[in-house]
Design brief:
Belongs to the BolA/IbaG family. This protein is α+β, with helices and mostly antiparallel strands and 77 residues long. It has one domain: GMP Synthetase, Chain A, domain 3. Helices cover 29% and strands 26% of the residues. Strands 1-2-3 form a three-stranded mixed sheet. Strand 2, helix 2 and strand 3 form a beta-alpha-beta unit. The N and C termini lie far apart (37 Å).
Length: 77
């Protein structure tokens, strides 16, 4: 079963409080998404560490309910 964009956004915001999150359904199939996450807690972290933080917030749904997620992460300007 696929996840909704709203569910993905909620999980990320719960895992990364204060983050700005924008989710795009890339194919309109509810299975391939892009997430743009801006979070102060990414400060000083490598891109890999930032992505790991986002994946952790998804609580094991990556690869199951959530098939594909393209990530763009950054700190606020």
């Amino acid at each position: 079963m696929a996840m909704s964009a709203e569910a993905i956004e909620l999980l990320i915001k719960q895992g990364l409080p204060g983050a700005t999150v924008r989710i795009e359904d890339l194919r309109g199939d509810g299975d391939h998404y892009a997430a743009h996450v801006i979070y102060d807690g990414f400060q000083g972290k490598s891109r890999v560490q930032q992505h790991q933080m986002v994946y952790k917030s998804l609580k094991g749904r990556m690869g199951g309910e959530l098939h594909a997620l393209a990530l763009q992460t950054s700190v606020p300007e």
